[in-house]
Amino acid sequence: MDRKALLVAKVSKNQSVAEMVESLFASNIAYLLSWEALARSCDDPSGVHQFRVALRRMRSLLTLFREVMPSELSLYWRNTMRDLAGELGEARDLDVLIGETLPEVAISQRHPGAELLLQRLERSRSKAYARVNVMLDGERYRQFRYDFPLWIATHQWQQRDNPKIVKRLKQSAQRYAYQLLDKRTAKVIKVGGGVDHDDAEALHQLRIEFKKLRYAAESFAPIFPKIDKFLRHGKGMQELLGSLNDLTVMDSVLDRVRSGESATELHHFIGMVSGWQRHRAAALLTEFAQRWQTFASAQHSW
Questions:
Q1: pTM to 2 decimals?
Q2: How far, in Å, CA of 74 to CA of 168, rounded?
Q3: Rounded to whole angstroms, how far apart are CA atoms 243 and 142?
Q4: Which structural domain range is residue 241 located in?
Q5: Which regions of the chain are under pLDDT 70?
Q6: Secondary structure (3-state) at 261
């Protein structure tokens, strides 16, 4: 199955805003469901990751289109997606730590505490995936899986008694998408311009704003053929900030492991990993400063 093809919405500059919105959600719903079975197991970590991304992307789109999908209509679904994605968070964090972050620590291959740490993390991951399966089998997800696609397909999201919204829905998709991209880019530059590099929460918020911008840009890519360069810049910034966030998450996970263990070699190894983490974070922050200047000063033509 070509899942990436599912994500390419059938949007075009000739559509109305209403047609564009419906096309985008239809493609994202299909993409989400294509990952459902794989999300049940850590055998392929991309399952939980892409399933969670699909939920977050649709939640972001509900916010992006708030001028034509009023909050009072979409709030229930935004909260539902937030909660469902939250149930996947621990599994995803442990997948990243086990499969991506720890292997970067070269010393992990020759320290007796490495195997102990991996055993503890694998045990935690098994429990996290058990909770993922409980969520997927639960009533709330089953209701979402049936009712949200129906809500989109039957146009229950359209507030037909509001003349302003009806007028916006009839607008050109290209014009509306252009305005949204300008607004989201301006928001990112505003948030990132004065961000404190020592404030992990502020950097996390900037990452979220970049993610929203990336979701919007990817969604509108079929309308704007020249957007590829912008997408590369935005994706690179988001991934860099994501790596910084992974280090913060890693610190929290390691603290939990440390607090429940007495093995000296495990504590010693965690201390070594923490030292590597600080070094890696400093390097990423230097790279961020350089990339930010390039992004903020670039001409972002759609």
A1: 0.90
A2: 17
A3: 33
A4: 11-297
A5: 1-9, 106-109, 299-302
A6: coil
